[in-house]
Amino acid sequence: MDDKLILLGHGSGGGLSHDLIDGLFVRHFANPLLLPLEDASAFDLPPGKTAFTTDSYVVKPIFFPGGDIGRLAVCGTVNDLSMRGARPLYLSAGFIIEEGFPIADLERIVISMSEAAREAGVSIVCGDTKVVERRAADGIFINTAGVGLIPAGVSVSVQNARPGDAVIVSGTIGDHGVTVLSQRQGLHFVSPVKSDAAPLNGLAQTMLGAAPAAVHAMRDPTRGGIATTLKEIASNSSVGIEIEEERIPVSDAVGAACEMLGLDYLYLANEGKIVAAVAEEQAARVLDAMRAQRYGRDAAVIGRVTADRPGTVTIRNPFGAKRIVEMLAGDQFPRIC
Amino acid sequence: MYPMCLAVPALITRIDGAMADAELAGNMTRVNILFTPGVKVGDYVIMHAGYAISVMDSAEAEETFRLLEEMAGFDADG
Amino acid sequence: MQTGKTFRDPAVVEKLKNRIWAASKKPIKVMEFCGTHTHAIHRFGIRQILPPTVELFSGPGCPVCVTDNTDIDRAIAISKLPGVIVATFGDLLKVPGSSESLLTAKAEGAAVVMVYSPLDVLSLAAGNPGCRVVFLGIGFETTAPAVAASIDEAREKGLSNYSVLSMHKVTPPAMRAILDAREIALDAILCPGHVSTVTGADAWRFVPEEYRIPAVVAGFEPVDIMLAVAQIVRQCEAGAPRVANAYPRSVSNEGNRPAREMMDQVFEPAPALWRGLGAIPASGLAIRPEYAAHDALRLFDVEVPENRTPDGCSCGEIIRGVMRPNECPLFKTICTPSHPIGPCMVSSEGSCSAYYLYG
């Protein structure tokens, strides 16, 4: 690749496009389904329920401690599939790139995507690249869609939480939110916190393996934080959720960063965490299994699902006071993922 | 941008002229020490809008801890 | 010094709570004058753990909330002038003026920038010599010294394109106005923690001396607030009002002299218009004539639209503590953080915002 910058020609389908696709995307995403570069990839899916999801990534800045837009793009879609109990299989990757974007940065992103895909055990089997004029996009936007397979008998849904369930979170919260915010231009703030971006299919499968019918609901708390996710589960399952502030895992650095920046970690984005509602009798077993897994070491029970006040999430602070957790109206932090 | 208002005191780790590095649990920020001229590395400061407005008085903090631990009755002064 | 952890110790809060419950016999009404106290009291659920005999009220302690519409309209009008960049603390962006907010003006093309410190604005002015940079000066005695320092530095460095629209106010006159109005029969004042860091605890001596009620300076951690309430209860039961400092690790009797000196050097007392309280003499800070070259009020002559408050907005009553946010007909129905009608819902230190987020 001789050029240093992405040009409009790279998105036009001609020679430059082909060079880019061969030299960068195919080279790093290499897999038998992608290689023929057909208009569409064709594959068999075993019988059963298919899961399908899509997400677009516009995070700013594109590179940050612990990850980048590419890693987010793969992990985010892998995770959405995993939250339904699906085994993720194939991803698509669509790029919209601003004219003038450094090719070295694009390669860095693509390598990161291929590493994340390898870790998750998925293949990127189709894609698209468009280039737009300067200022028509901000650097790079990525869309990924993914298909996966839900094994027979597995039914994980945001509608399935039941009174009595334990509410479990897989690790420390707020890491991604603090990382991205601390990297914003002009903020005199340097933080040791790193993004938690990670593929969670291994962890999700571990949880389901430990107690197949006991994991009722799973959700990855991205934008809007665990507050939003808990609220979604409570509303969709028509249950109440009560959590205890003291039991929520938060690292010291994130806690201090929140104090310094006036943030509430309940609402901060996460990119490598699971919130789950698990049948009470099996909660300890699921928790042990999670803690033995790479991305579940700090897993903790943070509360309970109840029949009281369906749709409401309450949090009890260490002093015994209770308050209702609402969803934040509007976008507190743009372009967090 | 500077963090707005720190109710929690931050540790001064380095001073260069009118500015200083302030740290809390590994997070670092910059603070102007114009209003706390006697501040030293190792002091804790209260910050507001990019300026240190007081140096935490550790003697007073200790005294407050002691008071709380003793939980002196309401007849005592303090 | 892990003061954060110690001053949040649930065991200590529990002990203080028990003391307060045991000692509190007569019902008392306590008002705080600090947006950060409003926020902390809600966040830590302090009202829930106090006995029903102790009733807490939020007074005019949120700088954005007490800013009158006229001032906001003026700021918006300035932002629309060609060649002007307006810099502001984030909270002010979404506050609706008589017809729009700085945010909508920005969406329509006005140059409006959010900052966390006046130090940023000085850099902005230095980096944009062709533009006139106007900083919206909002805040009480905690913030005013920092803004004063920026004006002084601009004069020293000859940064002629930097100016400040001072909407700064000082706390004691508002406290007097509330006490004089007697809309609520207050039994004690919870004095602001960081304002007191600058003014000194002595600044509140007029409260017991002239109004015969206790004034206790409090910090912002749960233990700080409970300790201050415990002292208030003790004083009320004993009937011996005085100033007490429950935040001695940051507040002294004399306060921060360098900060006050900088404030006095650049600002002078002036009448100010307070939302909910009206005009209060000597309650605002105007830029002294020596610094006229950096006074946006003198530099920019703009037409300010007719002052208009939306129907049903109760910010004025809420600021005076005579109405609680959930008693306002617009609360949570029409007025929400994403669609605020008044500043009390916009500012992170506003009563309505605290009620909405923390209940």
Question: What are the SSEs and their pairings?
Answer:
The complex is a heterotrimer of chains A (337), B (78) and C (359).
Chain A: H1 15-29, E1 49-57, E2 63-64, E3 67-68, H2 69-82, E4 87-98, H3 103-120, E5 123-132, E6 140-150, E7 166-169, H4 175-182, E8 189-190, H5 201-210, E9 215-219, H6 225-237, E10 240-244, H7 252-261, E11 275-278, H8 283-291, E12 300-306, E13 313-316, E14 322-325
Parallel strand pairs in A: 4-5, 10-13
Antiparallel strand pairs in A: 1-6, 2-3, 4-6, 7-11, 7-12, 9-11, 10-12, 13-14
Helix pairs in contact in A: 1-3, 2-3, 5-8
Chain B: E1 5-16, E2 19-24, E3 27-32, E4 44-48, E5 51-55, H1 58-70
Antiparallel strand pairs in B: 1-2, 1-4, 2-3, 4-5
Chain C: H1 3-6, H2 10-23, E1 28-32, H3 35-43, H4 46-49, E2 54-58, H5 69-79, E3 84-89, H6 102-107, E4 111-115, H7 118-127, E5 132-137, H8 144-157, E6 162-166, H9 171-181, E7 188-191, H10 193-199, H11 206-211, E8 215-217, H12 222-238, E9 243-245, H13 257-266, E10 267-274, E11 278-287, H14 296-299, H15 315-319, H16 343-346, H17 351-358
Parallel strand pairs in C: 1-2, 1-7, 3-4, 3-5, 5-6, 7-8, 8-9
Antiparallel strand pairs in C: 10-11
Strand content of chain A: 15-25%
The overall strand count of chain B is: 5
> Any idea of the CATH topology of chain B?
SH3 type barrels
Could you describe the largest sheet of chain A, including whether it forms a barrel?
7 strands, mixed
Low confidence ranges of chain B: 72-78
Into how many domains do the coordinates of chain A divide?
Answer: 2
Number of beta-strand segments of chain A: 14
* Highest-level CATH class of the largest domain in chain A: Alpha Beta
Radius of gyration of chain A: 21 Å
